[in-house]
Specification:
mainly alpha; two-stranded antiparallel ribbon; disordered N terminus; binds phenylalanine
Amino acid sequence: MDSGAQNRGQWGSKLGFILAAAGSAIGLGNIWRFPATAGQNGGGAFVAVYLASIVIICFAVMIAELALGRNTQRNPVGVYKKLAPGSSWKYFGVLGVLTGWGISSFYSVVAGWTLGYIYKTATGAFSNASPQQISQIFGDFVSNPVSAIGFHAAFMVITMLILFGGVKSGIERWSKILMPVLLVILILLVIRSVTLPGAEKGLAFLLQPKWDELTGRGVLAAVGQAFFSLSLGMGTMITYGSYLSRKENLFESAAWVCTLDTLIALLAGLAIFPALFTIPGLEPTIGAGLIFVVLPNIFNKIFLGGLFGTGFFILLAIAAVTSLISIVEVPVAYFVDELKWSRKKAVWVGGLGAFIVGIPAALSLGAVGWLSSVMTIEGRNYGFLDLMNLLFGQYSLIIGSLGVALFVGWRWGVSSINKEIEQGHPGYRHQALYGFLIRFLSPIIIAGLLIYLLIDPNAFA
Ligand code: PHE
């Protein structure tokens, strides 16, 4: 083990790494963003493209990110600087650090809503409320500047407190305790939702592809969602890989993370859509507010709904915290490695910076008029939060993943990454297949999508 690895800390165990990486992957992306985006893009066909992207593109990109991190023991900028000194590749790493801030800006805001909803559901704010009243409560809550910023701040403080502890005692310990709890509560919710009378409609929406309704924009959203959900494209998995021991099997680790993450997203879809379609007047296309407007209706209709509701939002806050620490960890690792800052200073600057960038997003759900509608594309309104979500949560990650695939396939080289994979994976025999995936298939598909975007800018959003 090289000394750099010791200074930077390492995961304490294999399970610790898988849980921490799955903790990064599983978050608002699965439970808030996946249903909202699937709902806006027609359901089943979106889900099919999302699943296909995971198998065809994301699995290979995840192995690439983990291998880059483990090989170089660096942050996303340091990786490119070390393996391609003096070249422009490092700007993909810089994009990743900026994307970390961009994503945390809206991520912490939505995570803050979950804190507010824990309180609301626990104190019975929604009990006996009509669907209209429930939407009103959400609208009032997110448009109140004090609570919007207050909960955003509270969430960022929690995140920073965990990050101060460092990689092993912080991220890993929390993930180990919290992730299994999350799975259990989610399964309970799914059982409740799919047994509601009329649940078939939601199941069909989620699981039966209607291909003629799939647009280019839907395909891009599905691929972007796969990257977002798996924490790929901004260097999170590079950073987590840099704390990974050479003894670990990268294929196996990546397979575990992809499987667990996809399972949770599908479970979230199964919890939300069947129930959604049993409530007249609610549409799957609502967007960012989807789960917050829909779920309280469902909790009202079920036995011990208040308890289910509180449990659900606790679960969501837990999932969000284990993801947000991994998002903020990217700028933090950059400061520690490249600027030689102490971890403490890096966390202060990383966390405060993310908080400040998040303020306009927090104020964009009605508190400040112009932030609530910064752009309209084909009749769809984009507030500041939606725009950040689209630019950083979708496009930045797609570009960053293209960078990783091109770099590994064409610059670092297929034989180098295969050598890295072989460490910890005796008997590894998929060199040719992996080379094909990372050198040709992933970059061609991602670049093809981006070129399509240039040709048809209407597909942008
Ligand atoms: N994957 C996380 C989630 O699903 C979000 C995330 C995106 C984390 C990008 C790191 C990097 O909530």
